[in-house]
Design a protein that fits this description.
This protein has about 200 residues and is of the alpha+beta class. Helix content is about 30%, strand content about 25%. The protein is built from 6 helices and 9 strands; from the N terminus they run βαβββββββαβαααα. Strand 3 and strand 4 form a beta hairpin. The longest helix has 18 residues, at about 160-180. The radius of gyration is 21 Å and the shape is globular.
Length: about 200
C-alpha cells in the first residue's frame, strides 16, 4: 500500500521547538489553534529605505514580524484575513504585503514566490475559498507603492479605504470572469448612439 506523501516542513527556523515562541502565540495569538506553517530570515525595508533583519513567521492564522532571537513579543501580528493583496517585484526579491485599513509591509526575500504561495493557500482556507490578489510589478524597488505607518496614520477615512475598494472591485471582476468564462461582453451591434448620447459620454 502506497504511503501518503510527507508534508514539507517549511519551519526553517524551527520556531515550533522554541518555548518563547509558544508563549508568544499563547499571548498574542490563538494558542493551540495556531500552528506554524512557515518561517525564515527575511529583510524588512522601513520608510527611510533602511534594511532591517527580521524573522518571518506564518501560522495558519497570522503573520508575525519578529526581531531575531527576541521572541518575547512580536513587532506586529497581522491576521491572514486582513491581508488584502500582495505585490511582487518581477525583477528583484522585493515584495509588499498590503493590509486592510493599515500600513503595508515592505519586505525582501529570494523566497518571495514561495511565501506568496503559502499565504494564498492559507487565505483561501481562512476565507472559505477566497482568492488573495497577487500583482507583479515591473518596479525593482517598491517603495513608491507602500503605505507607510506614518502615512496610514494621517490619511483620512476615505483615502485610507480607497485601495481596499479597488482591490474588492478587482476581486469581483475576477470572480465574475471565473463564474461566466464564456459570457459575451461585446456591446450589441444594433445599439445606436445619437449625437446627444455622444455628448453625454464626453461630459
Amino acid at each position: 500500500m502506497a504511503q501518503p506523501a510527507k508534508q514539507e516542513n517549511m519551519d526553517y527556523l524551527k520556531l515550533s521547538e522554541n518555548e518563547a515562541i509558544t508563549k508568544l502565540i499563547e499571548t498574542e495569538g490563538l494558542g493551540d489553534k495556531e500552528k506554524i506553517i512557515y518561517s525564515e530570515k527575511i529583510t524588512k525595508i522601513n520608510r527611510k529605505g533602511k534594511k532591517q533583519d527580521r524573522h518571518l513567521m506564518i501560522t495558519n492564522k497570522a503573520i508575525y514580524n519578529l526581531k531575531p532571537k527576541k521572541y518575547n513579543k512580536s513587532k506586529r501580528r497581522v491576521g491572514i484575513r486582513d491581508v488584502s493583496m500582495l505585490t511582487l517585484s518581477a525583477i528583484s526579491p522585493e515584495f509588499a504585503v498590503h493590509v486592510t485599513s493599515e500600513y503595508d509591509y515592505h519586505l525582501c526575500s529570494k523566497s518571495k514566490d514561495k511565501i506568496c504561495e503559502v499565504m494564498g493557500d492559507l487565505y483561501k482556507k481562512e476565507t472559505l475559498g477566497g482568492k488573495l490578489l497577487v500583482v507583479y510589478s515591473e518596479l525593482k524597488h517598491l517603495k513608491d507603492i507602500i503605505i507607510t505607518k506614518k502615512l496610514a496614520k494621517f490619511e483620512n477615512n476615505n483615502s485610507k479605504h480607497a485601495m481596499q475598494q479597488t482591490i474588492t472591485s478587482m476581486k469581483d471582476v475576477l470572480q465574475e470572469i471565473d463564474d461566466n468564462p464564456y459570457q459575451d461582453t461585446e456591446s450589441d451591434s444594433n445599439d445606436i448612439i445619437t449625437p446627444q448620447d455622444d455628448d453625454e459620454k464626453n461630459d
